[in-house]
Automatic annotation (TrEMBL), chain A:
GO terms for biological process: tRNA-type intron splice site recognition and cleavage. The lineage of its organism: Eukaryota, Viridiplantae, Streptophyta, Embryophyta, Tracheophyta. Belongs to the tRNA-intron endonuclease family. Gene3D superfamilies: 3.40.1350.10, tRNA intron endonuclease, N-terminal domain. This is tRNA-intron lyase.
TrEMBL record, chain B:
Coiled coil: none annotated. This is tRNA-splicing endonuclease subunit Sen54 N-terminal domain-containing protein. The keyword GTP-binding does not apply. Residues 36-95 form the tRNA-splicing endonuclease subunit Sen54 N-terminal domain. Belongs to the SEN54 family. Pfam families: tRNA_int_end_N2 (PF12928). InterPro entries: tRNA_splic_suSen54, tRNA_splic_suSen54_N. The lineage of its organism: Eukaryota, Viridiplantae, Streptophyta, Embryophyta, Tracheophyta. GO terms for biological process: tRNA-type intron splice site recognition and cleavage. It comes from Deinandra increscens subsp. villosa. Residues 7-16 have a biased composition (Low complexity).
C-alpha cells in the first residue's frame, strides 16, 4: 500500500514543504522564545505564539487546548512528544508546578515511573520522527501510533504502529498480540481504515532492565516489520488476470 | 437473498468505515435441510491405501485433477492423506484397502484423526480451502516426481535434479512423516498459483511456503528461523479456527527516510 494523497496537488505541496524544514523552524522558534512546558500528570502544557502554533500544527506535535487566553495558544503534549522536543530537539525546558526546571534525569525517572515501557515507546516514537514521519497517537484505532508521510490534511496515514518490547527477559511468546484473535482484531481495525500494521520491535540489547537514564536509549535498536493479511480469493483473481 | 441477510445481521458486524478488505460472504447459516450435497462423480479414480507408507497408491486416475495432485515415484502416482481425503469428499476417488474393499469416508476421517502420514484436521482444512480455490499444493520437503532405475527401492525421497539423490527406504519415509507432527510451527505445504499449464516434471518455484500455527502466533525469532529454511521463497503463516482459515505475512521492511 503506497501513500494515498488527498486530492490533486497534495503530493506536490508536500514535496515543496518537507517536514524536516518545518521541524527545524519550530526548533529555532522555541529556542528563541525560551519556551518552558509545564509537567502535569502524563502531559506537558506549553504556551505558544502564533508562529509556533502554526509550526506545531504543521508538524503534528501535540494538540491545541482551547482557551480564551490571548494572545497565547496552549498546546498539550504526550510524554513522548514532550521528551522528543526536550531531549532530541533540545528546544524546550520543562518545569513542574513549583516553577522548578526539571533536569534530564528527573524527567526520565518521572516518565518511566508513569509507564515502565516509556523507554521502548519513546525509542519507537523517535525512530519514526527522526525519519521525518509525522506521528500521532493511535489510541482511536487500537494501536500505539499512526504514522503519516506528511500532514494528515495532505495524505492518509499509512501505518498503524504497535511497539513490541523484544528480547527483554525470558519470554517464549510476544508481549503484545499474544493470541491469534489479537491479530485478527488489530488487523481488522487497521484494514478498515486502510492502514498497514507496522510493528516496531524495540530491542534493548542487554541494556539494564531498569533503564536508569536516557543514555541507555543509544544501545536500543529498532526493527520494522509489517503484518499483512493474505486473501487467497483476491489473489487468485489477480493471478487469473495475469494468466 | 433472505437467509444470507439474516446471517449477516446475526453475525453482527459490518464496519461502516473505509473499506473492508475481506468479506463476510462465506458466513452462511443454513436452514435445516438446505446443506449443499455433493454428487458422487461417475467414473471416479481408484486408489489403494498403503498403510506402511501412510499414502494412497493411485490405481486408475481419471480426470485432470491428477496433473496437480499427488507425487510420482518410479512411474507410479501416490497421494498424501489430504489429497486422498479431498478427492474422496468430492466423490472423485474410491479408496480401497489391501483386500480391494472400499474404505468409507468415516474411516478416512479417522485416519486424519490419528495423524496418519503426518496429517491433521487443521492442515487438511487449510489444504481444502486452497485446493478448492485452484491453488496447487504439495507437502513441503517432498519432490513432485522422481524417476529411478530398477535397482532402486520402490519408494525413495530426495533431490530430483542431478544424479546425487539421497535414497531412503520406505520406513525412513514413514519416520519423516511422523516427525512432521512434533513441532508446533512447521513448514507444511509448498503452494503454487493456479496454473492450467502446470507440470510436475517442471513445477517452477512455489509461490510461497506455508506454516501452520496451531498454538500461539509466531515470535520474531521463530519467524526468522523458519524463513531461514525457506531458501528465499516467501513464507506465509496461517491458522484455523472453527473451519475458518486465515493467512498472514510477516514482512521485514525498511521505512523510508522522508525529506
Amino acid at each position: 500500500m503506497g501513500p494515498r494523497w488527498k486530492g490533486k496537488g497534495s503530493e506536490l505541496k508536500a514535496l515543496a514543504n518537507p517536514i524536516s524544514n518545518s521541524i527545524s523552524d519550530l526548533q529555532s522558534s522555541l529556542i528563541e522564545s525560551n519556551s518552558q512546558g509545564i509537567l502535569s500528570g502524563s502531559t506537558v502544557l506549553l504556551a505558544t505564539n502564533p508562529q509556533q502554533t502554526d509550526l506545531l500544527n504543521q508538524t503534528c506535535f501535540g494538540r491545541p487546548v482551547i482557551t480564551v487566553d490571548k494572545p497565547n495558544q496552549w498546546f498539550q503534549f504526550s510524554l513522548e512528544e514532550a521528551f522528543y522536543l526536550y531531549h532530541s530537539l533540545k528546544c524546550i525546558k520543562i518545569v513542574d508546578g513549583n516553577h522548578n526546571i526539571k533536569t534530564v534525569n528527573e524527567l526520565w525517572d518521572y516518565m518511566v515511573s508513569k509507564r515502565a515501557s516509556f523507554p521502548d515507546f519513546f525509542k519507537a516514537y523517535s525512530h519514526l520522527r527522526v525519519k521525518n514521519w509525522v506521528v500521532r497517537s493511535g489510541c482511536q484505532y487500537g494501536v500505539d501510533f499512526v504514522a503519516y508521510r506528511h500532514h494528515p490534511s495532505l495524505v492518509h496515514s499509512e501505518y498503524g504502529v504497535l511497539v513490541f518490547s523484544d528480547g527483554n527477559g525470558n519470554r517464549n511468546g510476544n508481549d503484545r498480540l499474544r493470541v491469534w484473535s489479537d491479530f485478527q482484531c488489530t488487523l481488522r481495525l487497521c484494514g478498515s481504515v486502510a492502514k498497514t500494521l507496522l510493528i516496531l520491535h524495540v530491542n534493548r540489547n542487554g541494556e539494564d532492565v531498569i533503564c536508569s537514564s536516557p543514555s541507555c536509549l543509544d544501545g536500543f535498536s529498532v526493527d520494522e516489520q509489517t503484518i499483512t493479511r493474505w486473501n487467497p480469493e483476491r489473489c487468485r483473481e489477480d493471478q487469473a488476470a495475469v494468466n | 437473498m433472505e437467509i444470507e441477510d439474516w446471517a449477516a445481521s446475526s453475525a453482527g458486524s459490518s464496519d461502516s468505515e473505509v473499506t473492508l478488505p475481506d468479506s463476510d460472504n462465506e458466513d452462511h447459516c443454513y436452514a435445516y435441510g438446505d446443506l449443499p450435497k455433493l454428487q458422487f462423480r461417475k467414473g471416479g479414480s481408484k486408489a489403494r491405501w498403503k498403510e506402511e507408507l501412510g499414502m494412497a497408491e493411485i490405481i486408475s486416475n481419471k480426470g485432470r485433477m491428477w496433473i496437480t495432485t499427488g507425487i510420482m515415484r518410479s512411474g507410479k502416482l501416490y497421494s498424501f492423506l489430504e489429497d486422498t481425503l479431498f478427492m474422496a469428499e468430492i466423490g472423485a476417488l474410491h479408496l480401497l484397502d489391501e483386500m480391494d474393499k472400499r474404505i468409507p469416508l468415516e474411516d478416512i476421517y479417522k485416519k486424519v484423526a490419528e495423524g496418519v502420514g503426518g496429517s491433521s484436521w487443521e492442515s487438511f482444512e487449510v489444504y481444502r480451502h486452497l485446493k478448492s480455490l485452484g491453488y496447487i499444493i504439495k507437502r513441503h520437503g517432498v519432490c513432485w516426481s522422481m524417476k529411478h532405475d530398477k535397482n532402486v527401492p520402490a519408494f525413495v525421497e530426495g533431490e530430483s535434479e542431478n544424479g546425487s539423490e539421497e535414497r531412503v527406504s520406505v520406513t525412513e519415509i514413514t519416520e519423516l512423516l511422523s516427525t512432521m507432527q512434533i513441532k508446533d510451527a512447521r513448514l507444511v505445504f509448498d503452494v503454487y498459483p493456479p496454473n492450467s499449464k502446470f507440470r510436475k516434471s517442471n513445477p517452477g518455484k512455489p509461490m510461497f511456503i506455508l506454516c501452520i500455527n496451531s498454538g500461539n502466533p509466531p515470535t520474531k525469532k521463530q519467524i526468522k528461523d523458519l524463513e531461514g529454511q525457506c531458501e528465499g521463497i516467501p513464507l506465509k503463516f496461517c491458522y484455523v479456527e472453527h473451519g475458518r482459515v486465515s493467512f498472514f505475512s510477516f514482512n521485514e521492511i525498511e521505512l523510508a527516510v522522508l525529506p
